[in-house]
Amino acid sequence: MCRPTNFPETRRVIIAGAGPAGLLLQALLHNRNKSPNARVLYDVTLIESRVDLGQLSPEELKAHRSWMIGLAGHGLEAVRSVPGLYEQYVKDVGVSVTEGHVFFGSRRFGGSQLNKNEKEIPENFIVDRNFIVAALARYAKENMAGSELYSSKYDTELLYVDSTNHRVLIRDKETNLENYLSYDLLVGADGVRSTVREALVKRHFDFELQVGDIFSTFKAVHIQRPEALSPSSLSFLPACLPNFNGICLPETGDMVNLSMGVPRNLFDSTPSELKSDDPKVVAKYFEENFKAFKLSEESYLDLANQWVNQRWNRTGQVHCNRYSSNECKIVIMGDAAHATSPSIGMGMNTALRDAQKFNELLDKFEDDMEKVLPQFSKDRVPEGNALTDIALNLYCFDQKVGMKTMVGTAIRTGLHYFFPSLVEADSGTLIGRPDYTLSDIYDMATRQGALVKHRDINQRIRREHFEREVGMIKVERSGSSVMKYALVAAPAAACAVAMYVGYP
Question: How far apart are CA 7 and CA 77, in angstroms?
Fold first, then answer.
């Protein structure tokens, strides 16, 4: 029997990394396979070094709590591009934020409703990172597991990419057995230390890559919601402890995720009690010095136990000048392409958007990967680099400059509210809105001046800290302007003003 001339071509796709981008992309490719007009069938193999969170019960998943992150318009639109994914899997694992507060000491400001039209996609949806990963993995388990065009390999390490022969070397962590898998497309959604991305470094002399951190160290705990906070409120906590700034986000189960961080150049001056490994010492310190809101005696002890039983965390940051290679048949997305500071809450949103936009390019170019891959880089590199630069430099490490920016933001936001046709909105108030790309925000922030000024100051402060840390500078510079505080109070106060005049 002759094979029909219009029989769909089958392509082997390996997705490295079961994070938001990788899991959403596999769902999108699965939906392409179901189309009666499919030109190409995508035979997907997912490789992930950790456990399959989608196999865990809700009770078991609690042991894998990560930190709460925002799912704004960009990410929500991406999730909704898979029919039923948001409504049946994602919607109930997070909390829609309806009010926001800023605490200066024990004084609270803000509280306006953030999302008044229930028919709109919620712009302030907060979800534990691992909970949304589990939801996306459950979708795969329940909708894709029986397909001949899908397989998953959890607890499996991707060791090496042979980009010349288009294959990867993997190792089963349980058996230690290694073998090669061939691919027609390799998707690197494997995080900050991406193995897939290494192939681009080796293959392309013009590939530019910077891997660093966000110049902050932090801890995050999950505690029972304090009486002072509503179940759907987001709270900024500037200067909540000496040199520390924090944020408190709502969780499911009447819990909150309290995160607090200190700039790296001020870590040595952190109170010794916060470095103690004795929960009683930490609990007492919080009870006496954390003024934003009171906790129960049980919650103070719970917070302290979590605090001492975790390391000080640091988050990576990645910049690349391209996200794809036709020669290697590789595309990178998510943290592998643009890991970022959580300060503007757009990291996961951009990762999900990557998967959605890649799928749209498959439609646009009728699955022609020779056209899709370079266009993906052209479209997404501006977005990824805008994300990382805005997240790091929209706020200034210099306290005095940060205060001036805060005042300017407050004035601009108020004037725009009353005279929208005369005064342009502050760029920071538009972050997360699906009608604005991050490159739009970057362009606006550059024109408004703060981004360029902050970048120069922040780079100098980081450089001066590095020079002292490694011993390049032996004596404190005369007139050094490394400031005593790295201010997150500025964006927090700006958010308070924005909420007061009615902006999301």
Answer: 32
